[in-house]
Design brief:
The chain is mostly beta strands. The chain is about 0% helix and about 55% strand. The chain has no helices and 15 strands. About 30% of the residues are buried.
C-alpha cells in the first residue's frame, strides 16, 4: 500500500555494519488509513548469502521530535529469508497493529546469530596484497532512492537519520536511501 517498488529499483542494500543494529522507516498517517487500520503483512526486499537468515521486525511509536521512541509490540516478531535476492513477506495480522495519527516506525533488526554469519575472503583495507577472512551478518535490507528522509539507523543505542548518498548511479545520487518496505493493510471490519 505504501511503497510500490520493483526489484529493478533496488540497487543498494543496508548491511550490518558492526555498530549498526537495526533500521526503521517512518510511515506518515494518511487519510486512506481511516478504514484500513490494521497492518496485515510487511513485504521487504532482502539479500542473503546464507539460507534461512533470521531477522527481527521492529515497530516503534513516534516521539515529539519524530524519532523512534518505544517498541509497540513487546512480543518478538521474527522472519527468515532464503539465500539470494528475494521478496520476503511476513504476516503480522495477529498483532492487530494500527497506524496512529502521529505515524509509525517499522523496520528490521539484524540478529547476531551463528546461522546468520557469512564468512568471505577480502583485501585488508588499503593493502591489496594482504587478504583476510571477514564475517558479515545476514541478511542485507533493500534500499530505494528517495527525496524524503524517512529512514533511521540504530547505531548501538542511538537512532541516527540517514544522509543523502553520493552514488555513481544517477537514480541514487544526492538522494536518501529509504528502506524498501511495503505495507499490506485491510479494512477494520473485514476481520473475522
Amino acid at each position: 500500500m505504501d511503497e510500490n517498488f520493483k526489484e529493478s529499483d533496488i540497487k543498494y542494500f543496508f548491511g550490518h555494519g558492526g555498530d549498526w543494529k537495526g533500521i526503521v522507516k517512518y510511515f506518515v498517517y494518511k487519510k486512506e488509513y481511516f478504514n484500513k487500520h490494521y497492518i496485515d503483512s510487511l513485504k521487504f526486499f532482502l539479500e542473503s548469502e546464507v539460507n534461512d537468515a533470521e531477522f527481527e521486525i521492529i515497530i516503534y511509536n513516534v516521539d515529539y521530535n519524530k524519532y523512534p521512541k518505544n517498541i509497540i509490540k513487546s512480543e518478538r516478531i521474527t522472519g527468515t529469508c532464503e539465500k539470494g535476492k528475494k521478496y520476503t513477506t511476513i504476516d503480522i495480522s495477529r498483532f492487530k497493529i494500527k497506524i496512529p495519527l502521529e505515524g509509525i516506525f517499522i523496520g528490521l533488526r539484524w540478529l547476531e546469530l551463528e546461522k546468520n554469519e557469512h564468512k568471505y575472503n577480502s583485501h585488508y583495507r588499503t593493502n591489496t596484497k594482504k587478504r583476510i577472512i571477514q564475517t558479515s551478518i545476514q541478511p542485507n535490507f533493500g534500499a530505494i532512492p528517495s527525496t524524503i528522509m524517512d529512514t533511521w539507523i540504530l547505531r548501538e543505542k542511538k537512532w541516527e537519520k540517514t544522509k543523502k548518498s553520493k552514488s555513481i548511479l544517477k537514480k541514487y545520487d544526492n538522494k536518501y536511501l529509504s528502506l524498501a518496505i511495503h505495507l499490506e493493510m485491510h479494512e477494520e471490519d473485514s476481520l473475522c
